[in-house]
Design a protein that fits this description.
Layout: E1 6-15, E2 19-22, H1 23-27, H2 34-41, E3 45-48, H3 54-69, E4 78-82, H4 93-101, E5 107-111, H5 117-130, E6 136-144, E7 162-172, E8 178-185, E9 193-194, E10 218-219, H6 221-243, E11 252-255, H7 260-270, H8 281-284, H9 291-301, E12 309-317, E13 321-329
Parallel strand pairs: 4-5, 4-6, 11-12
Antiparallel strand pairs: 1-7, 2-3, 6-7, 8-13, 9-10, 12-13
The structure holds coenzyme A (COA).
Coenzyme A (COA) is lined by residues 32, 36-37, 40-41, 115, 154-155, 158, 193, 219, 221-222, 224-225, 258-259, 286, 317.
Length: 337
């Protein structure tokens, strides 16, 4: 392999649970309305798991992406799973996926950067490929927030859904589909969005008085919103600059699907037409680490995203974390040959 090594995006895939929870279903659980949820967030329904686990949903996404890319498990050298809701504290969800898809010669690990996890995972994969360490990398984002939602808290239970989505990346001598990445975090905002327990904080004897609510997602929505509307355009601007392209060169904005108002505000601040936004939030809600590739996958399935095109992927979330990646989407589905 000659240096510098480029990266080809060979495929994308999804794993979506079949159980649908509509806004009308939530009206039966908390004091809310379809009108409030749809107008404040853009969400109409979300999917939640029944028997599925983070690893089973991740494996489904992996198999779909492998089918798209036309590659087999034994060709994969590295599996990175971005998740905040793993099956276990250990072993990693990535190792469970490895066994499921028979990627017998791969290394595997999990990465946690909440809803920005997939952008972090792409950046890590990019480094491993560019250094010549690994050739073919499976990157998955998966989250099962339904397991950590307080179904009596209308501030949070309306926002999240479960899902998984995956990319297959491969070293290439003459093509490069990851034009830039940009990663940031600000730990001073850690308290704004968290799932405190399970973790190793509460079993400590000094903190024996763990409240039941600490098992659930805790969020201060307004400051997270204010952070997001600034972080998204800043990240996209920086990633565009690093990719050495212009805003007009970007065909699609594929943002983290947390709130349609955040996406619209970001497009407006960027001076980008709202037509360029790729969104599936109405159908799946906020699927955290899966959100960006799942939106990309839906955009490809619905023929909104044309091939080839330039996409600005941008994420934000707990940590606080944020980041963006400019990619070229130019993959052909091996199954449609
Ligand atoms: N149904 C009906 N009313 C609700 C409600 C619900 N599900 N949730 C909150 N409300 C009420 C509030 O109690 C408040 O009532 P009040 O005016 O009588 O006090 C009113 O609606 C407005 O609440 P507010 O929190 O100011 O709404 P908002 O416009 O900020 O929207 C969020 C709330 C959560 C949708 C919004 O802040 C948001 O999207 N934040 C970012 C969250 C996020 O993206 N998190 C994940 C990041 S990865």
């Amino acid at each position: 392999m000659k240096f510098p090594i480029g990266i080809k995006i060979l495929g994308v895939g999804a794993g979506i649970p079949s159980t649908i929870i509509s806004n009308a279903d939530l009206e039966k659980l908390v004091a809310t309305s379809d009108e409030w949820i749809a107008s404040r967030t853009g969400i109409s329904e979300r999917r939640i798991v029944a028997e599925e686990t983070a690893s089973s949903l991740a494996s489904e996404a992996a198999r779909d992406a492998m089918g798209f890319a036309g590659i087999k498990g034994e060709q994969i050298d590295l599996i990175i799973v971005a998740t905040s809701t793993p099956d276990y504290l250990y072993p990693s969800t990535a190792c469970m996926v490895q066994a499921d898809i028979k990627a017998n010669s791969a290394a595997a690990f999990d990465l946690e950067a909440a809803c920005t996890g997939i952008i972090y995972a792409l950046a890590v994969a990019q480094q491993f490929i560019a250094s010549g360490t690994f050739k073919t990398v499976l990157v998955i984002g998966v989250d099962l927030h339904s397991r950590f939602l307080n179904w009596e808290d209308r501030n949070t239970c309306i926002l999240f859904g479960d899902g998984a989505a995956a990319f297959i990346l491969q070293a290439s001598e003459n093509e490069n589909d990851i034009l830039s990445t940009y990663l940031r975090s600000d730990g001073s905002g850690a308290h704004l969005l968290k799932i405190p327990n399970p973790g190793t904080y509460y079993p400590h004897p000094d903190k024996a008085l763990c409240k039941d609510t600490e098992k659930f997602v805790q969020m201060n929505g307004r400051p997270v919103y204010e952070f997001a509307v600034k972080a998204v355009p800043e990240a996209v601007h920086t990633a565009i600059e690093r990719a050495n392209i212009k805003l007009e060169d970007v065909d699609y904005l594929v943002p983290h699907q947390a709130n349609i108002r955040i996406m619209n505000s970001a497009a407006e601040r960027l001076g980008m037409s709202k037509e360029k936004i790729v969104s599936n939030i109405d159908k799946v809600g906020n699927t955290s680490a899966a959100s960006i590739p799942l939106a990309l996958w839906h955009g490809i399935q619905s023929n909104q995203i044309k091939t080839p095109s330039i996409c600005a992927l941008v994420g934000f979330g707990a940590g606080l974390t944020w980041g963006a990646s400019i990619i070229r989407w130019n993959a052909k589905d091996a199954r449609s040959k």
